[in-house]
């Protein structure tokens, strides 16, 4: 449906490339490793890299002619503790931390040079609330704010062909959007090799509004960057809805989800000149991190395919829109 517009991706892991194999091969042309390329997965100890699981995903992409995005090099979560320590009971200093970062990026980006076309170089560095631009983190504390620029420089050296992304969530919220914009603008003004912005797009039926999404797209695109939705899912629930009693999705919510997906993809198509990929954070409702977050045990149904991998109302609505000439749900 979207082959003419942008790549359609899914986050996968070594289990889902088996349980969802046919679905992935048939409906998607790009994948992202859900956890397997994060720092702590690849590099648990200073002298030890574990590439097994990541390699499996890379081979799956290669064999099935799928594009692959790399995720992620610098983040405040899922990062090994040794990285921030000096090995003598103290904290690593800036020089040591940057030397380790460079070596990690060289090794990882270098290894997957021929398979990965785009990297989320820095993930979630911007603060959600308040006046501060950057969130407090070990990176900021031990290195100072230029850990971001350094990461992009190291990644560019390791693979000059790769498209380098800054990736974040709440990306359509006006306050956070403006901060992300400020960060990106300052990186570009300093000549830092950043090429794209990743809008995670962990959305729900109600938020963010279409106007907010549109304004975010226009604002980021005004920097001349390419945009990708990198972790799209459409939760049936508001973020703080505590209900855990549902074992199947209510028909009226699936209908709202179909309308919402149609409206969102209609908007994304309008911006296909600046949006180069839309990746879902999963593929079908049998496996989603949203079953455990933010409410543990609240089953969710965020995707276009159901638990048996059959197309949902949302999928059919997108198909209808496509057959009518890309006009979405009109
Ligand atoms: C963030 C990260 C992803 C993933 C999701 C939740 O958005 O970027 O790697 O951990 O949270 O699964």
Relevant terms:
11 helices; 37% helix; 330 residues; binds alpha-D-galactopyranose; alpha/beta
Task: Walk me through what this model shows.
With 330 residues, the chain is an alpha/beta fold. Helix content is 37%, strand content 16%. It has an eight-stranded parallel β-barrel with strand order 1-2-3-4-5-6-8-9, surrounded by five helices. α5 packs parallel to α7. The chain is globular. The relative contact order is 0.13. Alpha-D-galactopyranose (GLA) binds next to loops.
Topology diagram in text:
Elements: E1 7-12, H1 16-19, H2 21-27, E2 30-33, H3 39-42, H4 52-63, E3 67-74, H5 94-111, E4 118-123, H6 138-143, H7 147-158, E5 163-168, H8 174-189, E6 196-199, E7 202-204, H9 210-221, E8 226-235, H10 251-270, E9 275-280, H11 313-323
Parallel strand pairs: 1-2, 1-9, 2-3, 3-4, 4-5, 5-6, 6-8, 7-8, 8-9
The chain binds alpha-D-galactopyranose.
Residues 71, 123, 169, 200, 231, 289 line the site of alpha-D-galactopyranose.
């Amino acid at each position: 449906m979207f082959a003419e517009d942008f790549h359609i991706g899914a986050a996968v892991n070594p289990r889902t490339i088996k349980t969802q194999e046919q679905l992935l091969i048939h409906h998607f042309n790009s994948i992202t490793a859900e956890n397997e390329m994060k720092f702590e997965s690849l590099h648990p100890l200073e002298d030890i890299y574990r590439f097994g699981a990541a390699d499996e995903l890379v081979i799956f992409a290669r064999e099935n002619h799928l594009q692959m995005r790399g995720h992620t090099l610098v983040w405040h979560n899922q990062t090994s503790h040794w990285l921030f320590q000096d090995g003598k009971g103290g904290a690593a200093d800036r020089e040591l931390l940057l030397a380790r970062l460079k070596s990690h990026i060289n090794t990882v980006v270098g290894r997957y040079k021929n398979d990965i076309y785009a990297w989320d170089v820095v993930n979630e560095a911007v603060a959600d609330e308040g006046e501060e631009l950057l969130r407090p983190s070990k990176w900021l504390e031990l290195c100072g704010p230029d850990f971001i620029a350094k990461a992009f420089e190291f990644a560019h050296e390791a693979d000059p062909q790769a498209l380098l992304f800054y990736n974040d969530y709440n990306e359509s919220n006006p306050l956070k959007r403006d901060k992300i914009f400020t960060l990106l603008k300052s990186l570009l003004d300093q000549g830092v090799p950043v090429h794209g912005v990743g809008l995670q797009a962990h959305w729900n039926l109600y938020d963010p509004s279409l106007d907010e999404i549109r304004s975010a797209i226009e604002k980021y695109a005004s920097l001349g960057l390419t945009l990708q939705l990198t972790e799209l899912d459409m939760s049936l629930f508001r973020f703080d809805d505590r209900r855990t009693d549902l074992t199947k999705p209510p028909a009226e919510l699936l209908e709202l989800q179909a309308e919402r997906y149609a409206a969102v993809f209609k908007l994304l198509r309008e911006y296909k000149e600046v949006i180069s990929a839309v990746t879902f954070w999963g593929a079908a409702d049998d496996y989603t991190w949203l079953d455990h977050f933010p409410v543990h045990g609240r089953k969710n149904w965020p995707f276009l395919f159901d638990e048996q991998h059959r197309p949902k109302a949302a999928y059919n609505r997108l198909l209808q829109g496509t057959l009518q000439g890309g006009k979405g749900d009109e």
